[in-house]
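Ticket #4471: structure export looks truncated?
Reporter: QA, pipeline team
Priority: medium

Steps to reproduce: submit the single chain below to the structure queue and open the exported record.
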Amino acid sequence: MTTPLKHHALQLLRQALNDEQVQFREGQWEAIESLIQERSRLLVVQRTGWGKSLVYFLATRILRDRGAGPTLLISPLLALMRNQIQAAQRIGVVADSINSSNSEEWETVQTRLLNEQVDVLLISPERLANESFRDTVLSPLSQRIGLFVVDEAHCISDWGHDFRPDYRRIVRVLQALPPTIPAIATTATANNRVVNDIISQLGSNLQVFRGPLTRESLKLQNISLPQKAARMAWLAEHLPRIQGSGIIYCLTVRDAQRLARWLQQQGINAAAYYGDLSSAERLILEDKLLNNQIKALVATTALGMGFDKPDLAFVIHYQRPGSVVHYYQQVGRAGRAVDQAYGILLSGAEDEEITEYFIKTAFPPQAHVADVLLALELAEEGLSVPQLEQQLNLSKGQIDKVLKMLSVETPSPVIKQKSKWYATAVNYQIDRQKIEQLTTIRRAEQATMQQYMQSPDCLMMFLARELDDPNPAPCGKCAGCQGYPLLSEEYSLDLLNQAVIFLRRSDQLILPRKQWPSHVLLQYGWKGKIPLSLQAEAGRALSLWNDAGWGERVKVGKYEQNYFDEGLVDGSVALIQRWRPQPFPTWVTAVPSLNRPELVPNFAQRLADKLGLPFVPVIRKVRHTQQQKEMSNSYQQVRNLDRAFEVLSWENMNEPVLLVDDVVDSRWTFTLLAALLKNAGSGPVFPFALALNCLE
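Actual output as written to the record:
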């Protein structure tokens, strides 16, 4: 029987979706009714595209019509909720946001909110850490909230794959709300372990609405191609044959950038998408994909939760994700409103190393926590993050990670006042057992993904079973069910050769540093901005360290042979001839080492000979230093190099010079030596390295 309330809700649904024939999906109306009539607290676990956002936007409209206060929606994906907000606008729901990108609008939004002109306030969980927001917005709003929403609720669980520490603050907010306020937490990716953890944090009265995870239109296939060149060749050959547009996921920013360049070179309309792009750049790329104006976005996980393109035709993984949950969350973006879509998992030799890096860096080591706490305890007037960098051999990211983790503890051993952090009286002990448990889980998830990669059975059922779907069943469409590849695993030898050449020509830009760290190099009087008269020019690196192409050969030459082979010399000559720095260097010098005194000068001499230039070793190292890769921030890196070099003179010193090193880590060695060379009267300094060492 259709009640008047359900009929009204159905009309709103059709208005929101602009479709007079659409019906509620199984579970949607039941969730809405529970929020409105019973004022319940719900956890909705439904597959991507099921319509979780419609539940809370429709509930908001009905509750507001009944005189309830505005909805508070906490989501990590404000920039990716445009489609949902547009649907909400069609039913007269006015949504507004307070976030880091619209600070000039905060006062206006606050006024509109307090004047009942906003139906939904969207904030990120990080906003809850802002004292001003808590005092001026959250506190006066808390007793008037009509509905409390937590989007992507798996982030609340540190057992989940996307745990965000600021989500812990949500628990405190929810506990402070009157029990009569309905609440809904939503996610597409939560297994039983995560569901139970969410319940333990949000309360035992949380009702779970859970649906099947299988997506009937999605056709899954796994292809193992260990070498990057082989995967690049496969993509170049098969991507044009797949109808529609889609996403190719990479584990690192640099792989996304390089793969996009390769596809562009092959005449495929592709672009890289990653977290460091500006909001405007991301918006342009999202719109191009939404409007099928681009074949593929080559993306990191920055394009993940919240992006909604119902007709996405494929999701291809260039590398294997770290867990089944990660994989399902990403591949599930495809095939929501089309009869057929592909989910292709490519797997490479580097997958395990990259995933292991992410596992190891997920939590700050106990030593980092102890160092930060000790420094704060000894500082009577508190310390800013830059001041902590000067005292500790930790990067800004490592320090931020420690402070973030400590600040969400209850009670917290640290407190922030303006720009400075202070230690409190709390005697904090890191929960080593829990971190070990989580690390063990992550490694088990990695092993499960390896099993998935090799599974001969139904791939969709494998995913559903691992996500604790109550009714996993064979899909009948994947490569396992069909018994043969859906897409050919072959690729042309010509494309493979082109990919190998491309990888060997993937020159890396070495950008000059432009500012000295504070309180170091004082004997030179160098501080603040580095004047152009002392700056290096933009340089080049032949490869990424240990990467396909030249990177592996650089590693072998450095650590196994203690000699860089002639192929690396020839490759470097070819790069420099393509690069053609202006004015072109007339002489070559090298970064010296006391540990391997012959390695780099020998290479630089042979490189100079093939370029027809003199090699002049004008730089001397006068004291031992630690390896730059062991120094974690700019202050420590520059202090490590302070007074370690001296520069001699020669008759053509004032001409442009090629400054050669084997591996560049922080760029500070090049920066300091360029300043010393130019201070000694040299012409423009062009840094050149065999490899750039980084993982992003």
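Status: closed, not a bug. The export was complete when the record was re-opened. Leaving a note from the reviewer for reference: The two ends are 56 Å apart (CA to CA).
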